[in-house]
Amino acid sequence: MRFKRVSGNFEKTLVILLVAALCAGLALAGAGCGTNSVASTKLGKVEGRPASNGVLVFKGMPFAAPPVGDLRFMPPQPAKPWSGTHQAFAFGKAEAQPPDALTGESKQAQSENCLTLNVWTPGLDNTKRPVMVWIHGGGFTNGSGSDSIYDGANLSKRGDTVIVTINYRLGPFGFLYLGNVGGPRYAQSGNLGLLDQLAAIRWVRDNARAFGGDPGRITVFGESAGSISISALLGMPAARGLFNRAIAESGAANLARSTQSAEATTARFMQIAGVSDIAGLRSLTTSQMVSAEAEMKKQKMQAALLFGPVIDGSAVPQPPLDAIEAGSASGVDLLIGTNLNEINLWTLATPAVARFPLSVVSAYIPIVQSAISLTSPATPEAVAASYKSRRPAATDGEVSLAAITDSMFRVPAIRVAEAQSPKQSKTWMYLFTWPSPVFSRLGACHAIELPFVFGNMKASRISTLIGRNPPQRLVDTMQSAWLAFAKNGNPNASGVPEWQAYDAGSRATMILNTTSKQQDNPYGADTDVWNGVPFNSVKPSL
Questions:
Q1: Residue 421 is among the residues annotated as catalytic for this protein
Q2: What torsion, rounded to 10 degrees, do the Cα atoms 140, 141, 143, 145 define?
Q3: How many domains are contained in the chain?
Q4: Which residues contact residue 37 at a Cβ distance below 8 angstroms, ignoring those fewer than 6 apart?
Q5: Which of 288, 317, 346 is the last residue of a domain?
Q6: Burial, 200: exposed, middle or buried (Cβ in 10 Å; 0-12, 13-18, 19+)?
């Protein structure tokens, strides 16, 4: 059958309609068409690309000026606007860093010019979705927001939520305290990484609508150093009003450093680097800075935490836990928790830790030794005996690992929940207990929950811990809870067991495993061993 040609105008109209229909279809699939993949930020237009599951991803967007040259050791400065459209197709470079003790050399490109962030969004529209900003871990010396484990596509798609991952300055670039070396101009130099995080969150707040997000529903979430950072942010005056929800995974308010401790780190760093003043520090190349940091890590100075937040009286005016107790974060909903066997991860690098009694192991971790001295038993032998009484079949090494996990992670997290819950009723506690099926000695170790949060079960670094068939039921439970919390400050959702808010009386805690359930005061007798220990970065201190 042949159709009679009507007119050239009809053909043009038909073509326009077909193209429009095609663009609409692509947009519904998340691929974008024309301006559907271009967002207008306060600094200029950015173009993204579709991720594998249909959401849009914008990579490597600068949220602050490059902290190089005269801006090294300075608080983050505003990024310069641009003309035209910035193609946000590639991740920015990770902060310059030494090899990680557990994962080895990073394969990511590195630079001091690292202050970029990444956004995954289901659509560039006016839906006003909740926004979740991820702060990565890595002991304040390693890591990047572009690590494959943190790919936000799956979480964004599942929750119809905007996911953001950020970089921040690490090691001596972000946490080298120079107040005693350079005077008041450098009063905040020990917390530049935290200030970078705030600059990123501020950028997200100011640009959320451009990516289909709601600036009034921003959740910060992070793990390890990222979680410690969140505890610090909760106590920082500059953070007030920037976010209204926080999820803290495996890190609390017990590892901020005093200026005295930070000064000792600075002195040792400068000695290794062969410099004696600010001018000398500025003259160091990036690689020289990283080499000096690597040498410090090799010497294992301050084994618990080489770099990290500093109670400097300026950016962090007081111990974060004390600030939280005083109401600094009274308007922030909080979900906080730990993994049952956190410290076991480090046995991969130091297997001997799993064999020795607490009296031996604690001697090499001063902050644990100090914490033990503040307990009623007051000695490693007495603490170990208490733990052993509830674990008659446990080896000396297993008892040591349980006590160290509690003193470094679980009980400090409880202290944060106890400080926040009287100020904010929407405070929630969890304990992740699913053990590694690959390395039995690791149990539910540090970082093992990450693939369940992001739904990235084959990300190379973690897949070796979780095996080939991790339980989808646990993925569903955790993602449902985390996304529900980001939406309304309450982790209760379809598929999540009833979860009551935390208070110091019941200590209601969600046990996360293949079959999750709420339990009041889990491992309560172990917790009681540490009664009277504040875990506020002062007692014990680094």
A1: no
A2: 50
A3: 2
A4: 31, 47, 48, 49, 50, 56, 124
A5: 317
A6: buried
pLDDT of residue 107: 74
Within 10 Å of residue 185's Cβ, how many Cβ atoms? 12
Closest CA to 430 of 359, 350, 525, 501: 501
For residues 339 and 479, membership in a common domain is answered with yes
The answer to whether residues 62 and 254 touch, using CB atoms and an 8 Å cutoff, is: no
Based on the fold, state whether residues 154 and 83 are members of the same structural domain. Answer: yes
Q: Which of 325, 342, 398, 418 is catalytic?
A: 342
Measured between alpha carbons, how far is 235 from 248 in angstroms, rounded to an integer? 14
Residue 402, SS3 per DSSP: helix
Q: Is 105 a catalytic residue?
A: no
- Which of 189, 224, 480, 516 is labelled catalytic? 224
CATH number for position 227: 3.40.50.1820
How big is the chain by its Cα radius of gyration, in Å? 24
Are 336 and 291 found together in one domain?
A: no
What pLDDT score was predicted for residue 492? 98
Burial of 216 (0-12, 13-18, 19+ CB in 10 A): exposed
pTM of the full structure: 0.93
- Domain range spanning residue 437? 332-542
Q: Give yes or no: 370 in active site.
A: no
Pairing of strands 213-223, 129-135: parallel
Q: Which residue has the higher pLDDT, 302 or 472?
A: 472
504 and 372 share one domain: yes
Task: Identify whether residues 494 and 379 lie together within a single domain.
Answer: yes
pLDDT of 49 over the 90 cut: yes
Catalytic residue, candidates 446, 449, 480, 516 = 446
Q: What is the pLDDT of residues 359-408, one digit of tens each?
A: 999 998 999 999 999 999 999 999 999 999 999 999 999 999 999 999 99
Query: In this structure, what DSSP letter does residue 47 have?
Result: E
